[in-house]
Every structure is written in structure tokens, then in C-alpha cells.
Description:
The protein is of the alpha+beta class. Among the domains are: about 1-50, 2-Layer Sandwich (Ribosomal protein S3 C-terminal domain); about 110-235, Aspartate Aminotransferase, domain 1 (Alpha-Beta Complex), CATH 3.90.1150. It has helices spanning about 5-10, 20-30, 35-50, 110-125, 205-235, 235-240, 255-265; strands spanning about 55, 65, 70-75, 75-80, 85-90, 95-100, 130-135, 140-150, 155-170, 175-185, 190-200. β10 and β11 form a beta hairpin. The termini are far apart.
Amino acid sequence: xxxxxxxxxxxxxxxxxxxxxxxxxxxxxxxxxxxxxxxxxxxxxxxxxxxxxxxxxxxxxxxxxxxxxxxxxxxxxxxxxxxxxxxxxxxxxxxxxxxxxxxxxxxxxxxxxxxxxxxxxxxxxxxxxxxxxxxxxxxxxxxxxxxxxxxxxxxxxxxxxxxxxxxxxxxxxxxxxxxxxxxxxxxxxxxxxxxxxxxxxxxxxxxxxxxxxxxxxxxxxxxxxxxxxxxxxxxxxxxxxxxxxxxxxxxxxxxxxxxxxxxxxxxxxxx
Length: 271
């Protein structure tokens, strides 16, 4: 594997909220200055940003918008259905600029508008930290994207939830994936990367019905994750370390402390 391929692999697997640190580390490993490393990893960073649904704010705006392959117009421009606008995006600085009007047309324009309202309500209720969502027309139907980020570097952890759904009006189905990526790195390095496939036959093809189906799917998956964490805590994690010393007796820390004090007063233990 070449150095460029190795660097691209590091970028591809960068944990949520830690892309800048990964790029800096690559620069140190390859002994490159900041400008040189940015040029070298630019294609990998662009791919990462679109796959991870990186978010940005439009100039003068307060809401986060998504950068993805589903709203990619080419030539470094993307569109946002909510604001009916397009924008240029710099993948190295993760900044948006040059906003232009970009109305959503086509046979699904009304459905997209309704989905933005109902999916938006779902996201605002269940994703409290740095959420964003987007609804975009595709060749298959309508793409619905949700991303929730939670960054806490001061506590040594970061996480991201990504939902990708394709709604097909012709078959009234909802397919896609839910991906969760959490990195915890205090006194160690633990990472959870998991994905669930979604394949739902919708009871209702209204925007409200689709949003309800999404809510049910995501709630069920969160409950599954909670159960899995509980099983790990009570099972696999406990097996990594003895609950009792090899003597099979609990340590009496008060006596141990008193014994240590006694040794100090007496000038140390006798042999």
C-alpha cells in the first residue's frame, strides 16, 4: 500500500469530530507542511465529508445543512432543500459560501416540502445536539438524511448518528441504513462502529406516516443498542478482569490503609 493510500485509509476511518487531528498526524508521519498535506489528502477528505454527512452553516444562516452525495451538484456546489438554495463548499475549511437560489422542482416537490416539516419535527425532538436533516430528490425517489453529532473532547469522547433512507413512492417502501460511530479515548482507545439496514413497507405514504415510520425504526434500534451495551457490561467486559483477587476475598481498604500507616510509624515492615 502506497503512502497516499495509507493516508486515505486513515482519513476514511477518522472518528467523528477528529478529522483535523487525523490530518495533522498524517502530516507529522509524512513530514509535510500544512498546505502540502491538505493537497495530498483533499480527495479523501471530500469523500469523507460526503459519506459522513458533514454539516455547515450557510452565510447569515443559523441552521446546519448537510453535505452529501445526495445533494451534490458538482464543481464543489451543493443544494439545501429547506432554504431552496445552493452553495459552494470548501472541504478543507468546511465552510460554505456563494449562496444562490435553487428551488426544488419536479413531481415530488410537494412531498419533499412536507417531509422537511415532519422529519424536521422528529429530528428536533430526538436529536438534541448538533442535528441536521435533508430531503432530496433522487432517481429512485426521495432521499431522507439525518445526522446527529455529539462532541465532548474535554471528556475524551465523540459520537455521530447517521440515518439514510430512500423513500420510493411507486412501491411505498422505505429502505436505507442507520450508522452509529462513537469513539472514547480516555486512558485507552475504544470505538463502537455499527450499522443497521432498514427495509420497511409503509402503512401510510403521507409525510407524517413516513416520519412516524422513521421514528419507530430509530427507537427500536436505540433500544437494541441499549440492550447490547447492557450485555457487554454484564458479560464480555466483566470477563476481561476479575471481580475478586486470586484469594477470592474482597480487599478491606480501611485495614490496608491502617496497616500502611502502622508500617510508616514503626519504621517499615520487618523481614
